[in-house]
Amino acid sequence: MLRGRSGMAHVCIGVFGRDASPTGNKGRVLSAKRSYFLGFLMLGLWAAVALRRVWGDWGEDLAALYMAGHMIRIGKPELVYLVSAENFVNSVPEAWLPEMARLGVGGLTAFPYIYPPLWAVLVAPLTGWLGPRGFNDLFAVAQVSLMVLGVWLAWRLAGRAARIPFWAWAGFSGLLLQTGFVPAFALELMQPQIAVTILCILSVERLAHGRNVAAGVALAVAAAIKLTPAVLVVIFLLERRWHALAAFLLSAAALLAVGLAVAGGDLHAAFLENTSRIRGVMVLTCPNFSISSTLYALWYQLGLVAPLSGEIKNTVIHGPPVSITLLSKVLLAAVLLVAWHAGRRLSEAWRLPYMLFQLTLFAGLFGPFSWGHYFLVQVLLAPVLLALAGRAVRFGAGFAVVLGGSVLTVVRMNMWPDPGFTCASAAALTLFAVGLAVSVVAGRAARGHWPAPGPLRPNEASL
């Protein structure tokens, strides 16, 4: 099997055509331009279809941001944070109902606001200029554009390292974005997780190209929206990128200071209290791909927890067994150790996207909540499968990813009995197996049993 820099380049050129390498003679440069044109054309077509689907809609998670900003604008900041363990899933805070009716969206769902107050304060003026539908449409354009940007950033991070031409990466990405449950779920809810995901990919992509300060700033912004991305600081530490770490810490401190200055201490105290209300809560529902939920399902079958009444579909569990929490932490530590050991000898061109994939995957699976849209990083990096050796292997792996992650598959799984157990557990275990398989492949690559590229050329690193 071909190994090393030239071997990988020859493998990909043979499979994908001459534009797999961005340098060379004039004909190859023109071919690369055509690759960009075709790739962005396909992504543009997907973006048009996606915008058509969500235009004029009402994303329940984005609605939380709108209503929080609206409450601040009309002088009712005490109505921003109203989450409780009882109304956390698929429900509207009752205090919002009169205002929602006045805004023309009565009868629709707006999930409770659970994000830092800074973002509600920043969008508050927008709620005076735009109605709920217009606000949704504005963010729909932004979110779909971010998805397209995410495809390009993922290719810059991993696709070019694997010598995959952009048109092939974009084509496979477009297929996954159009058919996949994870991107459809994120867009349906108009989830801020889309922006968080792109910022995480941007952070590691900048790190790969030597832009350490930009990497730290991007990660700090992501962590200021949701805390989970802070786990990627581990990459800065393992790679000894001290400038990136310093930029992250300073940017995070600056964002906190700005938040306190514009939102005040009372809203931040309410935010912390809001977060504490849902600590220790477990949600048994199909799109919550949680290892903890899977363990709870096992405990349930073994008779180790109390029986539940009715169908287990959108069930909230208060205070799950401590044994599940402890076992989850042990499993998380074990799989992270395996992932680190498997990938530590990879070349940097592979190591950075590998760590991004594994850290976000396992942090999502073992977090307090593991909503399906948390795994958008994995969708955007999935086209790296096109670099696998052997046409049959590539086709089989690609088919499995498209079919297994499709909307139709998950909708069908949600029709199983007790989907809060069956559907959620099947999805969580599948993602867990994917993470272990990626660790195995990385370990083989590190030992020279899998083609892996060398570092990027200087002109590529400067882009």
Automatic annotation (TrEMBL):
Transmembrane segments: 36-55, 113-131, 138-155, 167-187, 213-238, 244-269, 281-302, 322-340, 352-372, 392-411, 423-446
Main localization, broad class: membrane
Compartments (UniProt record): Cell membrane
GO molecular function: hexosyltransferase activity
UniProt keyword annotations, A-Z: Cell membrane, Membrane, Transferase, Transmembrane, Transmembrane helix
Transmembrane in keyword set: yes
Family the entry assigns: Belongs to the glycosyltransferase 87 family.
Protein name: Uncharacterized protein DUF2029
Organism of origin: Rhodovulum euryhalinum
